Amino acid sequence: MNAKFITLEGMDGAGKSTHISSIIELLSARGVEVVSTREPGGTELGERLRELLLHEAMHPETETLLMFAARREHIAQVIKPALARGACVLSDRFTDATYAYQCGAKGVDASKIELLEHWVQDSLQPDMTLLFDVPVEVSMQRLSAARTPDKFERESADFFTRIRNAYLQRAQQNPARFRVIDSNQPLAEVAKSVAEAIASL
């Protein structure tokens, strides 16, 4: 189980962040060191870029470049060192989010993202990606009851539909890596699905 890179993905309001602590507990119970992190963020510079990305208006390609700038630091400072010492890295979002948000929802050319992906990540890819999926209307209902929304969370239903479709397309293209979690189930059932996915590693 050591040295695994697990990512959690899903549109805002899908509920992925709710299960991070339980995944940490599952892995820790197996005697595994767990490094929990997030994107954008994960480093001091990454967190500063996160504030810009979540709250400042900018061109979608500028967003993409800043995402990968933060990701480069994240990989160099957090992800690769943790994997090198045999830890399990659990990241709340990674590059699939860029394909969903900046490409799928905002129209950035996928070939530009692919170029940045190969440059910044080299051969690094998650060992498993848990995609938390809910209908768009459920996502928006959850967001309306949550904290003050950031610029992405304030977007329209059509924006979220494009994100969801992009995520599901990514899952279909990478079936060996993705586990799609129906996050519209009761919390206990979602947790069970997550535990089964983690056990399959």
From TrEMBL:
Q: Which GO terms describe its molecular function?
A: ATP binding; dTMP kinase activity
What general EC class does the enzyme of this chain belong to?
Answer: transferase
Task: Give the enzyme's EC designation.
Answer: 2.7.4.9
Q: Which GO terms describe its cellular component?
A: cytosol
Kindly state which keywords UniProt assigns to this record, in alphabetical order. Answer: ATP-binding, Kinase, Nucleotide biosynthesis, Nucleotide-binding, Transferase
Q: Which family does it belong to?
A: Belongs to the thymidylate kinase family.
Q: Pfam families, alphabetically?
A: Thymidylate_kin
What positions does the entry give for ATP binding? Answer: 10-17
Cross-referenced HAMAP family: Thymidylate_kinase
Q: What does this protein do?
A: Phosphorylation of dTMP to form dTDP in both de novo and salvage pathways of dTTP synthesis.
- Judging by the UniProt lineage, the source's domain of life is Bacteria
Q: Gene encoding this polypeptide?
A: tmk
Which InterPro entries has this protein been placed in?
P-loop_NTPase, Thymidylate_kin-like_dom, Thymidylate_kinase
Name of the molecule in the record: Thymidylate kinase
